[in-house]
Amino acid sequence: MDRLTPLAATFLEAEDVDETASLAIGSLAIFEGPAPDFDEFVASIEGRLPLIPRYRQKVRRVVLDLAAPAWVDDPDFDIAWHVRRTALPAPGGRREVERLFSRVMTRRMDRRRPLWEYWFCEGLAGGRWALLSKIHHSMVDGVSGSDLYRLVLDASPVSPAPVPDDWQPQSPTSGLSFTTTAILELATSPAHALRGAATALSSPRRFVRSTAGTALGMWRLAAALRPVHHTSLTGSLDGSRRYAWTEGSLANLRCVREAYGVTVNDVALAAIAGGFRRLLESRGESPDPHALRSLVPVSMREPGEESIPDNRVSLLLPYLPVDIADPVERLQAVHRRIRELQASHEPLAGDSITNLAAYGPFPPVSEGIRLALRLPQRQVATVTTNVPGPHTTLYALGRELQELLPYVPIADRVRIGVAIHSYRDALTFGLTGDYDGAPDLDALAEAIRESLDELMGAAHTHA
Question: Smallest Cα–Cα separation from 412: which of 362, 463, 373?
Fold first, then answer.
C-alpha cells in the first residue's frame, strides 16, 4: 500500500488546523493562439493519464490515524471533474490573470477526489490561451510538479499518439481490512525502525559522517527557533489570496553571477530581498536585519528522481538582508549566508527529521505534527522557492508554450510567498499574498524588478 510520507501528510494536516489555508501549488502555462477545441484538449490530457498514475488516486485516511493516509484508486474517477473550462473577461491582461489565480487557488480541493485540477482558460490578450495547473502539495513538491509538464505537454509541435490505457481501478478495500492493515503496520513499526538502523550501521564510517553533519545542522535549525522581529509581513490571514508576477532574463542573471562569483539563486534571492526592503520602506517600517527570515526549500532528490510524485525537500532558513541598502553588498550577504547554512548541513538535518519520522509509529508522529501546527509560528516571515523549469520549448496540440507563471501557497501567518521558476531564457517571480495583509503586492513585484535592474547595472559597471 502506497502511504503518504509524514511530510506529505503535513500539508493535509495544515489545512485541517488552519481554515484559511489552501495548500495547492500551481502554475499558469500561456500558449500562442488560437486555442484548441476544448474536447480535443481534454482528450489529449486523458491520453496521458497512464503516465501519471497518481492522477487517478485519492487520499484515504485511517481511523484514529493508526497509520499514514494512503493513495487508493478512485473508482468514480471522471476526467470532466478535473479538466475545467473558463475564460478571462476582456481585455484578458495582467489584472484578469491575477484575478484568475486568486479565484482558483483560494478555493480548497475536494478530498473525496484526486487532488488535482487543470483549468483550460481562453480570452487572454493577443488571442492567447492558458492552462492553469493546480495540484495539492501532498501529491507533489515543486520539482515533481514542474516535471509533470514534460508528461502532459510535447517537445515538438507534433503531438504523439495517446498512451495505451488498460487501467481498471482496484476494488476498494473494506473499512475493516483497511484498518486491520494499519494496525499490523503499527505493530511492526519497531521492527521497521530496527531494519532502518541496521541499514544505516552497515556502513559505520558513512554513518558517523552523516550523524556529525546532522548534529551540526540540528544546532543551526535550533537557532532558527528565535522569532523574527515583528513587521507587517506576518500576521493573521483572511483566506483569500492575491497574485502578481514579474520577470527577468536568465542571461542577465548569469551576467550578475559571473561578475560577482555567486549563483543564479543568490541573485534571485538578493533581488527579492531588495524588493522587500522597498516594500517595508513604502509601509513606513524599518528594514530590520532580523525581520525577514525566509523558508527556502531545498530539493533532496537524486538525479533521475524528478518525475516521482512525492515531497522530497528539506530547507534553509536564512535571514534575507533587507537592512543592506547597497545592492552588491546585499548580494554578497545572501551568497555568504546561503553558503554558511549549506556548510552547516542545515538541509541534511531537515531531511533527517522527515526520514526519522517515516520510521516511527504514525499516531505519535501525527499528533506531533498537529501540535506543531497549532502553535502560531513566528520564526518565518516569507517563503522563497526556486524551481528550475524546462530550458527548451514545449507545445500543447501544436501551440507553443510562451510563458510559465508559478504559484506558491501561503499559510500560518506568512502573508507573502515568492515562487521562482525558469522557462527557456526567462526567470519568473510569482508572488502570492494574503488579500487583506498584502494589498500592495503589485508594488512588491515592481520593486523586485527594480532590484534586478540595479544588480544588472552594477554588474555592467563592475565589468
Answer: 373
Identify whether 137 is a catalytic site residue: yes
> Left, alpha or beta for 318 (phi > 0: left; psi -120 to 50: alpha)?
beta
Going by pLDDT thresholds of 50, 70 and 90, the confidence category of residue 316 is confident
pLDDT tens-digit readout, 215-264: 444 545 566 678 999 999 999 998 899 999 999 999 999 999 999 999 99
Give residue limits of the domains in the chain: 204-391+403-462
Cβ-based neighbour number of residue 230 at 10 Å: 13
Residues 6+ apart with CB under 8 A from 202: none
Rg (CA), the chain: 23
CATH, domain range 204-391+403-462: 3.30.559.30
Buried b (16+ CB within 10 A) or exposed e, 160-174: eeeeeeeeeeeeeee
Residue whose C-alpha is closest to residue 106's, from 19, 235, 12: 19
Among candidate residues 82, 137, 335, 421, the one labeled active-site is 137
State the pTM of this model: 0.89
| For residues 44-53, average pLDDT | 94
What is the DSSP annotation of 43-55?
HHHHTTGGG-GGG
Q: What per-residue confidence (pLDDT) applies to 225?
A: 73
What is the H or E stretch that residue 429 is in?
strand 426-434
